[in-house]
Amino acid sequence: MIKFLLKGLIRDRTRSLFPTLIVLAGVALTVLLFNWMNGVKNNFIQVSAKFSTGHVKIMSRAYAEEADQIPNDLALSGMESLQRELRRDFTGLIWTPRIRFGGLLDIPDEHGETRAQGPVAGLAVDLFSTSSPERNILNIEKSIVRGRLPEKRGEILISDEFADKLDIQLGETATLISSTMYGSMATANFTVVGTIRFGISAMDRGAMLADISDIQYALDMQDTVGEMLGFFDDFLYYDDKAEKITAAFNTHYMKTDDEFSPMMITLRSQNGLGEYFDMVSSISSAGLSIFVMAMSIVLWNAGLMGNLRRYGEIGVRLAIGEDKGHIYRSMIAESLMVGCIGSILGTALGLAISYYLQVKGINISYLMKNASMMVSDVWRAQVTPTSYVIGFIPGLLATLLGTSISGIGIYKRQTSILMKELET
Amino acid sequence: MKRLFSAIIILAATVAIAQQPSGDLILKKVDDNFGSGNKIIVAEMIIHGRRGSRTIKSKSWIQGTEQSFTEFLAPAREKGTKMLKLGEQLWTYTPSTDRTIKISGHMLRQSLMGSDMSYEDKMEDPVLHNLYSAKVIGEEMFLERPCWVLELTAKRTDIVYYSRKIWVDTERYVPLKENRYAKSGKLLKTLEVKNIIRVQSRWVANRAVFKDVLKKGDGTEFVLESIEFNADIPSHIFSKAALRK
Q1: What is the CATH number of the domain that holds B134?
Q2: Which end of chain A offers a freer environment for a tag, N or C, measured as fewer CB atoms within 10 Å?
Q3: For A292-308, how does the pLDDT look when each residue is reduced to its tens digit (9 = 90+)?
Q4: Quick one: three-class SS letters along chain A?
């Protein structure tokens, strides 16, 4: 039966080509949209996690309340003992301390007077320890445009764009003007040994990357950090695990009567990321539903047109005694074959374009010039195992729905007037 | 009888009004008491922040209203940090970087050494009648002293606080309490004097608490260790070269 229907479809291209092309196009678009949304969402998660939120983050309660303002005056003290306890009690995560800070970078001329000055968004991480995960997390080596990594205290990296803007040469002294954790003005001299480009506009406008011990000294933050970030050791985010770890940590460490006691929050709870992820999921689902509906309508229409064209054929089949239900089922079987073939071809096409966008990506840096979001300038699609099957949902469902609706017409034919219809 | 009673009331009111000087005159007397001549001041700032308190000691040389030079003496981390004000310009020098940096733009709004005072506060002309017109809006007791309550309104638009309300001691012409407001009427900073001493025939507050009400914490306490009026100050001190010495 299947072989018979398949032969019919192949030999009568007018019966199969148009619906197959529609299914192919719809499935390809569905697969592409799914992979694109997936890529953008995961890009956002990864960039946010690596540069800002971690998979979980520990801060003081007071700092957490005003975290957007990077209030280092409310930073977390007792970093070393906390880090030891975290490594002992929460072994599934990689822990790394960070200080984010703002300030001005002032470049002196030969007389020590200000030659150039600009605002920097500073990030202090552990650059020197051999066990530090930061080089991998931030992909620092590959982000260096000129120069080298800091090798000793007092050396920093700055963003390449910022260095160009202020005409800062490698080896030049730069004075950081910021605030200590007690609110006094902090000034510290550094040597610029390299420039970096992370491919994130928010960072590349004016980033300064320094070793955490240098910044602790400069900002009078001995044994104190702004944030302690935790990453799952495979660097993938698991919300349920993160929630459990957070609950366990906060039960043990957080004290309601001490605003400087540590508290942990998950990636989802930071910067409205939870709402963002929910929104992306909703948009993906809505996109799929719209595709299914639109394709069903088109295929319904195609089915109607096909039925009109095949009006005579169906009439003859009814006239020679074929059961209406059998005709209806055979047409549905035909449509499922069309759907299956269209879905396979559409998935292949969608995956091919997705793989291309996964490797090459689309550079949207021109749209991100003033963006403050931690998101990569190059947006990429991401192919996952689900990408291989997601297109079959609209591909098969739409053809099934389209034919089911249009095929109802078969039951409206009356055998008593068949001969009259066939004569005309 | 009725006429006589009315006349007495009118006479009493006239005498009372005649005895109360105008707001601008009171403000001028406040400025005259503090003086705009040379001064050398040694003072401590006790900053009561959210993490606890810390004390910063400084010595300032002030010449008129335009020039001042401050050297921080303690704690060890701040020791040797210097600040120079020349007219509208402010520089700071830190020995650890051996850099002289001009404080300008938004940096002026930042806290001075973590206190409740900003660089803008430090830069402001201390002669109030140059900046504000004053109106007496009442009389109150404060620190068991009779005070005139003055409402000051900025004469120009480039003044940090659009309006102030100050409680001025009616005999000593020392402000004992002060509220500073934004143009919107929002209270920004407060000052409360805790003690007054007499130095070289002038009344001076030697302990006061300055509070940025937008900031958490218990304010910054200023403790005057010594003040010398009409001091002899060499002019070379008010130069950028002096910052590095």
Answers
A1: 2.50.20.10
A2: C
A3: 777 777 777 776 676 66
A4: CHHHHHHHHHHCHHHHHHHHHHHHHHHHHHHHHHHHHHHHHHHHHHHHHHHHHCCEEEEEHHHHHCHHHCCHHHCEECHHHHHHHHHHHCCCEEEEEEEEEEEEEEEECCCCCEEEEEEEEEEEECCCCCCCCHHHHCCHHHHEEEECCCCCCCEEEEEHHHHHHHCCCCCCEEEEEEECCCCCEEEEEEEEEEEECCCCHHHHCCEEEEEHHHHHHHCCCCCEECEEEEEECCCCCCHHHHHHHHHHHHHHHCCCCCCCCEEEEEHHHCCCHHHHHHHHHHHHHHHHHHHHHHHHHHHHHHHHHHHHHCHHHHHHHHHCCCCHHHHHHHHHHHHHHHHHHHHHHHHHHHHHHHHHHHHCCEECHHHCCCCCCCCCCEECCCCCCCHHHHCHHHHHHHHHHHHHHHHHHHHHCCHHHHHHHHHC
